[in-house]
Amino acid sequence: MNLKISNIRFNPQGDLPEIASTAFIDPSAQIIGNIxxxxxxxxxPNAVIRADEPDDAGRVSPVVIEEKCNIQDxxxxxxxxxxxxRIGARTSISHGCIIHGPCVISPDCFLGFRAVIFNSxxxxxxxxxxxxxxxxxxxxxxxxxxxxxxxxxxxxINHQRIVREEExxxxxxxxxxxxxxxxxxxxxxxxxxI
Length: 194
Hints:
This protein has 2 helices and 20 strands. The chain is of the alpha/beta class. The chain has one domain (8-191): UDP N-Acetylglucosamine Acyltransferase, domain 1. Strands 1, 2, 4, 5, 7, 8, 10, 11, 13, 15, 17, 18 and 20 form a 13-stranded parallel sheet that branches. A 7-stranded parallel sheet has the order 3-6-9-12-14-16-19. The protein is globular. The protein starts with 7 loop residues before the first strand and ends with a helix. 36% of the residues are buried.
């Protein structure tokens, strides 16, 4: 972790982000407080990942981003006091998404542009379409939430279809592209001593 970059900083309780040495954090991203970022994670420009609201005992619950996730441009991740956010391995969080805890997003999920997730759990391989909103819900594994849908009840989930091969193919391409970006930005920044 490069503490010369002022975008990685303590919260008021004194928690400092823990970032794996193989992760790449864009210099314009803001990483604040009790954040745990795993190996080979890519955090894109202007993302904000913030864990700074203490519970009644003064402790801040963590935001955990597991290995090989990609957090793209303008994503916001935060949590209400005393709650946490966990994003499972290999998950893609597309441009402009908002994830507000308490939330658990299991491994291998895909969130399309500007999706909003609040107080919800997504099981493995959930696909969330562009602009979809998920509020206080649990989404079963392999379910596709269509673009623009607002999910706030179990009945809405029961009528959704399973993720298809074409979506999984697109998800794999996005994952591979962002792993390439992570690797090549690291090389560029090391080469130019940024």
